[in-house]
Write a structure and sequence with these properties.
The chain is mainly β and 169 residues long. It is built from 3 helices and 14 strands. Strands 1, 3, 4, 5, 7, 9, 10, 12 and 14 form a 9-stranded antiparallel β-sheet that branches. The protein has a 3-stranded antiparallel β-sheet with strand order 2-8-11, with no helix packed on it. The chain starts with a strand and ends in a 17-residue tail after the last strand.
Amino acid sequence: MAVLSGRDIRRLIEKDPPLVEGWVDLEEQVQANGFDLTLREVAIQQSAGNITAANSQRVVSELSPLVFDGMGSIELVPGTYIITYNEIVHLPKNIMALGRPRSSLLRCGVTVGTAVWDAGYEGRSQSLLVVYNSRGFRVQRNARITQLVFLELTGEAEGYSGAYQGENI
């Protein structure tokens, strides 16, 4: 297993389908060891969720999107939010990804909770944004929030075939 470099990421972005599409500023977003995802939408959870042993009984929380102000920002009070990224990821069957919050978020008392981006996944992902800072947090649309780190597998996987395949496209 190997971590993809910025050069590898750029090469895969030029393929069809691209590793990542819908980016805001490619020069800013490609990093030495990953790719920064940007903020498209912030929502609050409106209902309880339900996770069971059988995926057929899974119910995720209903969401209500928040509105950006005239400057394209949102003032967030401490709590949890669901964020949607601008970018659509197309992972080949030999590449998976892990998402980590950008260090500037952590320095503001904010973090991002992510799951694994499985090999073969395609979609516009969502993550959990948690504001711990008791004074809140202001975030602007298109801000770089999460860094995806791509890992090349030792072989080709079957590929993701779960409920979130093709989400938010």
